[in-house]
Design a protein that fits this description.
This protein is mainly alpha-helical. Helices cover 45% and strands 5% of the residues. It is built from 19 helices and 8 strands.
């Protein structure tokens, strides 16, 4: 049974003192009074389940975070720029404005999730659990999710309000402004360090274990240039014996392969369930299809022809991760998200936030950056061999660096990694401008385009305190 099924016992709804819906949502309103509801283990468990439910939202891993992580890069494009009011189309040509719904939804739903986490962490301390270890695990899980949400926010918007306490009044955090990114990163690292200590080594479906916390912390460290710290954490995951690469590239994605050994942390979806009018499925499978191919297909996040043409001959991922709608007038699309017969927005494919092949390739990257290029080649070849390819011919540190970066594109396409990788490498402006030039497009970007704008609704809610990012 899906972990998320029948978990919507606690509903956080938006509180608005203006006509805007996308302001910072920080006040929990539940079916029972919050002060009296969190009184025992069962109610805390329901609240924790509600935290995971937030990750399913379209503004998060239901759709938007995947799209912003891919369409902003050079390997993916928006078939029809005006679809959904330019929601994703603006990402494609870097014309995103502060009123874009995607910008507001990511911000708002992230803070709703953070507030749910803060509520659990504030209340769980005084609650007695039958199994004290389970209580410790839940604390680690909540800190992991809070770190994940803040990591997305700080990479997309830079300085953001840092709220780590339960908010009992919506006015508590108005006027605090945006917290400097380095302080946000410090809190992310602190949460993940705690989570590593609090989480079990063995994994369970849809819940992070120690390996997921180490992998996410390594990603955070790599983004900040700390390759030594990242090496320690990635090495621990790779050598833990908990995770492994699936034997072939056909055994990773899709409902039939859920829960496999490659998954460190996933957001679960399920088709065919309806809880009080709310489905448990994902719209990604349909909306990431070319227009007209299935109900509600939007042509979001389609691989470019240049990307398709860059696959090596014999690479099994071309057939296993990608399909084409018509050989005569081809539009390609990722098959990592299935379309369900129960409805266009009811796909059952889980979204894999962290998987072992991502870890292996990051491990290769940090080994290489730490001067262990021979060992890095060994890790890189694990991924290439599984994809039916010969071992790499790269041998120098510079060539291996390029080879690992290229391999990540083929292995992780469509999962929301490419734009964040480019930003982490520090060459996003260079790569994107070269791409636009190669296509004859007049678009050019600069450093200000590396961040999303702060939602206009948030600025309007807290004027003079929440400032806009440069260039918007």
């Amino acid at each position: 049974m899906k972990f998320y099924k029948y978990i919507f016992l606690i509903t956080v709804v938006s509180l608005s003192f203006t006509s805007c819906e996308d302001e910072l949502d920080i006040l929990p309103i539940t079916e029972k009074s919050a002060n009296s509801f969190y009184s025992n283990e069962a109610e805390i468990e329901s609240a924790a389940a509600g935290v995971y439910a937030m990750l399913q939202r379209n503004g998060l891993y239901g759709l938007d975070l995947i799209g912003v992580g891919e369409i902003s890069g050079e390997d993916s494009f928006e078939e029809i720029a005006a679809n959904d009011g330019g929601r994703f189309g603006q990402l494609d040509d870097f014309s995103t404005n502060p009123g874009n719904d995607l910008v507001g939804d990511i911000w708002r739903e992230s803070y709703e999730g953070i507030q749910r986490v803060n509520t659990v962490l504030n209340r769980i301390t005084d609650i007695e659990f039958e199994n004290p270890t389970l209580k410790t695990n839940r604390i680690g899980e909540m800190k992991f999710v809070r770190a994940l949400l803040y990591y997305n926010l700080v990479r997309l918007y830079s300085d953001v309000p840092l709220v780590i306490e339960e908010t009992e009044s919506p006015f508590d955090f108005f006027g605090q402004g945006r917290t400097p990114a380095d302080q946000v990163y410090a809190q992310i690292e602190a949460d993940l360090s705690d989570a590593i200590q609090d989480l079990p080594l063995e994994k369970s479906p849809a819940r992070p274990a120690e390996g997921a916390a180490r992998a996410l912390l390594a990603d955070v460290q790599m983004t900040q240039g700390n390759f030594n710290g990242a090496l320690t954490n990635l090495e621990a995951v790779v050598n833990s014996g908990v995770y492994d690469l699936m034997p072939t590239t056909t055994e990773i994605f899709g409902v039939a392969n859920e829960g496999n050994a490659e998954i460190l942390f996933e957001v679960q979806f399920a088709s065919g369930f309806n809880v009080d009018g709310r489905i448990e499925g994902s719209p990604a499978g349909a909306q990431f299809r070319p227009s007209g191919t299935t109900a509600n297909a939007k042509g979001h996040n389609l691989p470019t022809q240049a990307f398709i043409d860059s696959y090596e001959v014999g690479d099994t991922r071309l057939n296993d991760y990608v399909a084409v709608d018509s050989e005569a007038n081809p539009f390609y699309f990722t098959t990592k998200y299935e379309v369900s017969s129960t409805g266009p927005n009811d796909g059952g494919s889980d979204h894999l936030i962290i998987r072992f092949s991502d870890v292996v390739l990051k491990y290769a990257e940090v080994l290489n950056e730490n001067g262990q290029t021979t060992e890095a080649i060994t890790q890189l070849n694990r991924i290439r061999t599984r994809a039916g390819l010969a071992v790499t011919t790269a041998s120098s540190q510079a060539d291996v660096r390029d080879a690992v970066r290229l391999e990540r594109r083929f292995e992780l396409f469509g999962e929301g990694h490419r734009w964040f990788d480019l930003k982490r490498y520090g060459n996003a402006v260079e790569v994107m401008n070269a791409f636009f030039e190669s296509t004859g497009a007049t678009t050019r970007i600069n450093e200000s385009n590396l961040l999303l704008p702060i939602p206009q609704s948030q600025i309007d809610t807290d004027p003079g305190v929440i400032t806009q990012n440069p260039g918007y």
